[in-house]
Backbone:
């Protein structure tokens, strides 16, 4: 197992020169990250640039967790999509998943390019144009780019509660099952200790969470 982990680390480290080259080419608006998915709670092993303000040891993002939960090793690269950070930045983002020789996803390389200033200029120009296309901005994916796994978990809980629209204290059993289902779909259960956290949030036993999870997966 250790030899496997060592080989995976060597594969991931081989992408560092690529990360450095990209940032050197595109400058201070660009950030490149390398994540080791052996530990999603603290997966960021290399970062060049300061666009998202994260540091080494930051967790995997919610968008990636959701993709991994849905597709596993069959996950495909996410290229040229737009995200919006908590502080309002618009980022043009691409993610390429890194696999070992056996085809298992072991990590990913991500490029985050801050296009906030470009979008503001584009908005000004568009006001003087006959047509105006804001689809890219309107469809930006909200992404927290959390600095620790607690932030990721809180973001997942808050967003799921907003989607359901019912306070936890007033949830029916069916709504609690749906709550667990939505968290599962977002990849929350890929996070170590997630069952304990969700147990505290819902105020039920761990076995009840497992029952909800089993029931929600059997219905999907």
Residues:
């Amino acid at each position: 197992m250790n030899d496997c982990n060592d080989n995976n680390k060597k594969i991931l480290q081989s992408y560092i020169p690529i990360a450095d080259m990209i940032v050197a080419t595109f400058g201070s608006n660009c950030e490149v990250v390398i994540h080791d998915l052996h530990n999603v709670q603290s997966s960021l092993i290399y970062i060049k640039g300061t666009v998202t303000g994260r540091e080494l040891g930051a967790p995997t993002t919610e968008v990636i967790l959701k993709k991994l939960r849905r597709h596993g090793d069959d996950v495909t690269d996410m290229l040229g999509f737009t995200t919006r950070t908590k502080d309002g930045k618009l980022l043009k983002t691409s993610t390429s998943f890194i696999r070992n020789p056996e085809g298992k996803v072991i990590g990913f390389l991500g490029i985050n390019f801050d296009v906030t200033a470009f979008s503001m200029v584009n908005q000004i120009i568009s006001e003087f144009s006959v047509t105006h296309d804001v689809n890219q901005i309107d469809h930006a994916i909200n992404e927290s780019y959390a600095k620790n796994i607690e932030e990721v978990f809180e973001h997942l809980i808050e967003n799921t509660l907003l989607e359901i629209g019912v306070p936890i204290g007033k949830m029916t059993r069916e709504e609690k099952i749906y709550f667990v289902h939505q968290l599962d779909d977002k990849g929350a259960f890929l996070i170590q200790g997630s069952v304990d956290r969700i147990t505290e949030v819902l105020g039920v036993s761990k076995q009840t969470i497992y029952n909800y999870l089993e029931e929600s997966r059997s219905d999907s």
Summary: The chain has a mean pLDDT of 89. The chain has two domains: 2-146, 151-219.
